[in-house]
Specification:
By secondary structure, the protein is of the alpha+beta class. It has two domains: 78 residues, Alpha-Beta Plaits (2-Layer Sandwich), CATH 3.30.70; 155 residues, Metallo-beta-lactamase, Chain A, CATH 3.60.15. It contains five helices and 17 strands. The strands form five sheets. The chain has a seven-stranded mixed beta sheet with strand order 5-6-7-8-9-10-11, with no helix packed on it. Helix 5 links the parallel strand 9 and strand 10. The relative contact order is 0.10. The mean pLDDT is 96.
Length: 243
């Protein structure tokens, strides 16, 4: 929980606030844009939740925050935010929440599939939390963990131990060193199964790989991002460390 003594002065007065430990990962602004906004190099509360649904989204942001930089001055049932994850995005794709500081707040996703179709896929690793692991277990566990690149592996070992799943990652991002079971090599696309295509995109990191699911959902890791200025997906030059 955030420290009220470190509350950023840019926060609007009231219940929810962000403190100075914020790393500006953008998670809260994506989860609850009606409450949080950008203040340069940090997020702040610019509008207090005005309804139960807005309060729930704000609590989801609090739970997802990788640095516990969001706090409240009033008592709230934390399980409102905790139990909301994994949160359905579209069809059988869910956002895991519980982002990790070691991944700079990167998002992790769960693809829920019957065992006959290959079982559930965890795309990148969230922060390990017992509540989240139990929920994922109830949703069928994890058969495959796809790690897009070395920056977003977070607590992959703990999830792999919990679910005894196979991890997939490219050799050029240190897969062998991490003990990955299925190591990808080269620059050609690779079909993991009939619905999953791994596509190497060595820009952000040398071994960065995106995952194309059902030719509908593209899990990009840090390869692509939304540009609010251009209003389109783009690859930021400042993030293309390898190429």
């Amino acid at each position: 929980m955030a420290n009220p003594a470190l509350r950023l002065p840019e926060n609007i007065p009231g219940d929810f606030f962000v403190d100075s430990t914020c790393i500006d990962c953008d998670a809260c602004r994506q989860i609850a844009p009606e409450t949080f906004t950008d203040a340069g190099d940090a997020s702040i509360v610019y509008r207090q939740p005005a309804s139960e649904s807005e309060a729930k989204r704000a609590l989801m942001a609090l739970v997802a925050c990788p640095t516990a930089s969001i706090g409240t001055t009033e008592h709230h049932d934390a399980h409102i935010g905790i139990d909301a994850f994994p949160a359905q995005i579209s069809d059988n794709v869910y956002f895991c929440g519980f982002t990790a500081e070691s991944s700079f707040g990167a998002w992790s996703y769960l693809i829920v599939r019957p065992q006959s179709e290959g079982g559930n896929v965890l795309v990148d690793s969230p922060r390990f939390a017992t509540h989240l692991a139990r929920k994922i277990e109830l949703m069928g566990g994890v058969r495959t963990m796809f790690l897009t690149h070395r920056d977003d592996v977070a607590d992959h070992r703990r999830f792999a131990d919990r679910f005894n799943c196979e991890r997939v990652m490219h050799a050029d991002d240190g897969a062998a060193r991490l003990g990955i079971e299925h190591v990808l090599r080269g620059t050609e696309s690779f079909e993991l199964d009939q619905d999953l295509i791994a596509i190497p995109v060595p820009g952000h990191t040398r071994g960065h790989v995106v995952l194309f699911y059902r030719r509908k959902f593209l899990f990009t890791g840090d390869h692509l991002a939304w540009s609010p200025n251009r209003e389109t997906l783009t690859a930021f030059r400042s993030a293309c460390w390898y190429s």
